[in-house]
Fold:
Amino acid sequence: MTKPSSEADEPHSQVLRIPADQPLALESGLDLAPLQIAYQTYGALNAEKSNAVLICHALTGDQHVANEHPVTRKAGWWSNLIGPGKPVDTNRYFVICSNVLGGCMGTSGPANTNPAKGHAYGTEFPVITISDMVRAQARLIDHLGISRLLAVIGGSMGGMQVLAWASLFPDRVFAAMPIACAAKHSAQNIAFHEVGRQAVMADPDWRSGRYFEAGLRPVKGLSVARMGAHITYLSESALQRKFGRKFQDRSAPTFSFDADFQVESYLRYQGISFVERFDANSYLYLTRAMDYFDLAADNGGSLAAAFKGSKTRFCLVSFTSDWLFTTAESRQIVHALNANGASVSFVEIESDKGHDAFLLDEPVLYRTTRGFLDAAASSIGGRG
Structure:
C-alpha cells in the first residue's frame, strides 16, 4: 500500500500550490507558506458558477469523498450520498472536497516536506485551527473563481468547518448544512482526544514527531488511539446489536489476552487498517484543532454574535444515539440562529448507530439533504 507520507507531497488528486509570497495568516499569529491544497471535484460548474457545493470532511476523512481511495482502494467515504442521481447529485451540482489543512493526503500538514529543511515538518508544523482550515479552503474557492457557494455540507469536524464558513464568510455561503456537530468541543471530547494523543506520543517510535527521519512510524500508538476513538463513534446499542458478547472464531474463552470477543477483533482491525492511510502527527494536529473550536469564545462569548445578520440558510441534523455530539448541542446552535432571525431548519434523526450514523445508510438523512439542496438551488433561480 502507498504510505500516507507519499500522498502528502504528491497526492493522487488535483493540487493548488500557493507560492511563498502569498502566506496564509494563522490564528496562532504565524504565517504558513508555501501552501498546498489537495482537492477533488465532481460534476461541472455551470456558466453562472452558482451550483458549487463544498463538502467538508471529518477528522479521519480526506478529499476522496466520492471516488476510489488511492491508498485503501475503497469507495469514497460519502459515496452513498454524493454522485449521479444521489442526494448531492453530481449531474446537477459541482461538488468540491479538499483535504483539510494539517491533513496527510496532499494539503499542507506535518507529513509534508518542509521546503526550508528538506524533511517532513513533523511537529515543526504550526498548530492550526478549524478557522485556519476554512481560510485555506477559501483560497481554493477563490482559485476556482467561485464567489458564492450554493452550499457547504459536512459532519463532525466537517460540521465545525461548515459553522466556521457561515460565521467567517456569510456572504459566500448561500446554504449551510452542519451535521452531527457542535459549536464547541466539550470537555469530555477534549479528554477523549488527549487519551488518543498520549497513546501516540507514548509509542517509542514517535520520536518526538520526527519518526519519518528514522524511517519509522508509531503504528502501535496510533492504532490504540484509533481504537479508543472508534468506540466513541458508535453507540452501546449498535455495539450490542453487532457484536454482543459473541466470541471470535471460537466457542469458548481461551483464558488468554488474545481477541476472544468479536468486538475486540473488530477494534483491532480498525486500528491496524487506520495506520495504513493516516499520519500520526496529523492525528495530533487535527484533534487539537477540534479541541480549540469554540465559536462563541471567538465572538465575544456570544454564539448568536457568530451569526449576526447572517442571510445564510441553515439545516442542522443530529442523531438520537450520538453521544459524542448530542442533539442538545445542535439545538444550542439553532437557538443562536433563531436569535438572529436566521432561516434555520432542524432535523433529529432516530438512529441507534451513534455518531457514525451520518456516514452510514440513513434514508432520512438522504431525503433531508436532497430536499435542502433542491430548495436552495430553486431559490436562486436555477436547476444547477
User: Anything to note?
Assistant: The first strand starts at residue 14 and ends at 18. The two ends are 38 Å apart (CA to CA).
